[in-house]
Amino acid sequence: MSLIEQVRQICNRLAEHGWRDLFLQHGLDISAADLKQELLKDIHAKINRKLKGFEDFSLEGTRGIEPGHPARSLFYHSLASPNVVTGVDGLELTSFPTLGELEIVENYVYGITPSSLSEIRSRVGRNEDLAIVVFASEYRPAPETVHRKHADLCFSRTGVARVGTTEPLYSPKNRGFLPNVKGDDFAFRVLPARYSVYIAVQRKGNEEEFGPISRSEEQRQSDMERLFWIPLHKLFSGTECISELNLNVSLEAQHVNEKLRRIHLELGKEGGWSESDISQYPFIFKEGIAQLSDSPEFGKNVIVPVPHPLIEEAKYKDKRLTFKVPKNPNLFSSSLEISAVNNARRAPEYVHIRHKVENGEIVDLNENSSLMKEIKEGGYDAVHYIDYTADGWIAAICPELSSVFLGNHPAYSLVTAPDFFPHCDQREVMDWWNQLVPKALRKEIWQQGGPNALSDTRRAANLELKTEMVSGRNTIKKTIFNSQDDTMTAIVSLPYKIPPRNTKYGKVAETTRHSHLPDAAAGYFAPGWDVSFDRTQEGTEFLAAYGLGSPFPEDSKLCAALSTFWPAVAPDAARTFGPNVDGSFSFATVSPLTDEEIGQAGNLPWDGVSGPLHKEGQKVIEYNSFDYVDYVNSSLHKKFSLSLTSQIDIREYQDRLLMMARVYAALGITHRDKSNWGVLSFREVDLSDEELQTAREKTHSLNFAAATSRGTVYRFEMYLKGQTLPVENDFQKVHVEINEKVILFVNSVQILIKHEDSDWILQDVNF
């Protein structure tokens, strides 16, 4: 069936759901007999950018479809923008396009008047090379694009899918995938990534033409000297893509998880396994990780992770797989630590070793008071666990063009851990931090890590990923990615010869969907949340998933404890765990989770570990001991949940960061001393709260304003930590003495403070 007939079917389906009337507001009739001409006609005088969702439609857009320009095609924008959701009556449209239908419309933008190969070549300079390149792509509202002037397609040569326990859910209204499972607080939907094939040109960075998205002036200058592949013309099967050619375009996906193999390459024979065993499943595996969709609803260019439990016990030759924990091992808390080499990670940095196997049975060392003594001695057999995180590549196959373009460059594909803040992207935190946070405050927020997005990383993709090729009688292994190709994670747009005008769109709603581009992933590697990095013998750094924790929850605990080390991805669990009796592992809270989100109130802690308890009648706080908190157990017992953290949007996340910083400032707590203070309680209260009313009356501040649009104020209960003591009847707990306690109510400009033996005071805090 021709593309125009497929588009007509889409129009006919949507017309009766309010779409025909909506398009008529712009002078476009999607029920016209000659639909092609209707989509090509000039409607610039009738386009109504005052309608919701059209505020950021390109000012250069004058037709339903502008050949080769999705962002300048009103028909495409209407269907693809997550902000076009209401009809002419102001009510929500009753149906939306599927992802598969959007793929058809996108193809038609390039196929409505097919370009020839010579015409495509004429768009580039005589000395510029063209190649076939695979990109992950998203159509985004203006604030999230490269140039931020109008809604546009954004492209990256890296895509980020996420593991989960159940099938994906595409929300046509949101134009994206959603992570939650209605009615199941402990389920995670897999989150796919969408890829497309383009004829592309390689050029040095150019902000005015295509980008890339860069956050700092230093990086922008550096990017002007780096090479980026820029999409020119989309490739798809059939006769309508390139004139006089009948193309067969397909994708091929390969992913690898080799974390267990890497562990044993580092441990050597001491770990109990060596070649050829460690070249077998599950030390290294490629199956059951992710696959290309065969669903018409999604289209054929979507990588969908295979649903699994978050972690599983590893089996080798149908038997439980164990390994020998080294004697006197290197430890970080109760995890085996495999040391980095000049910060590069040749193997998982943290490995779970707390499930000992004795006489064929698993002994959970967390149940023993001798936990730390036993793991410090080592020399025992521990259970190996696998997860289904991985990295790999998405390659394009197009026989008809294989001799036309010598270059064919795959995309780098990541299948990563869940994102517990799906509505807070790393990019949004970075932009806010760089542009709006006062300079005096920037260095005060994060003690560890920082708001760096993966899209700002300039490293090659995994140089250990290889494919086998036959050369004569020999089989050789060829590296998939190029060591010089260090802009794999950058985000670019289509090239604009003339910079587009700014729509001055005003307030445009943020997207509430999973983003599979790398500005929604973490770009700080210690070892990392979404990906880590390694280094060649020659010193070239490259991204690699095998440096992440084994299994990934083992590293998640440490990320969370280190005060939202990976902002907008890892929750801040610093106030959940108690320090060890010797005072080690005492962390400061940066972006607090509420009492409910850590299970201090209610029964749904995000990680399955309940928060601190103020022992009645005692001046101590009871915590779970850091060494005994085990996220592998939380995973095995299905205790992880994103039901509450997924409700936190970017504004709420930013507010919490600022409010916490204001609390430290109001109490005169220096950056260095933050870890000496604990957050005993953090919650929102209404303005009618009795305690708040008393505080306002005592300070004559009845006009103390709300901190949120919900009409609420943040209430903090802080305390100065004293000595850490063991709990007599529970070795998994510790008591921390309270030396001083303070209650605070915080809004955006003022703080009400009450020390234990003092009256309420009102204080302004400005940075």
Question: Could you characterize the architecture of this molecule?
Answer:
The protein has 767 residues and is α+β, with helices and mostly antiparallel strands. Among the domains are: 3-111, no CATH class; 256-298 and 309-385, no CATH class; 562-764, no CATH class. 18% of the residues lie in helices and 25% in strands. It contains 14 helices and 37 strands. Strands 1, 2, 6, 7, 9, 10, 23 and 27 form an eight-stranded mixed β-sheet that branches. Strands 30, 31, 32, 33, 34, 35, 36 and 37 form an eight-stranded mixed β-sheet that branches. 50% of the residues are buried. The mean pLDDT is 93.
Shape: globular
Helix percentage: 10-25%
- Rounded to the nearest angstrom, the distance between the terminal CA atoms is 62 Å
Determine the structural class based on helices, strands and strand pairing.
Answer: alpha+beta
What portion of residues belong to β-strands? 15-25%
Biggest sheet statistics? 8 strands, mixed
**Which regions are unreliable across 5 or more consecutive residues at pLDDT < 50?**
none
Q: Averaging pLDDT over every residue, what do you get?
A: 93
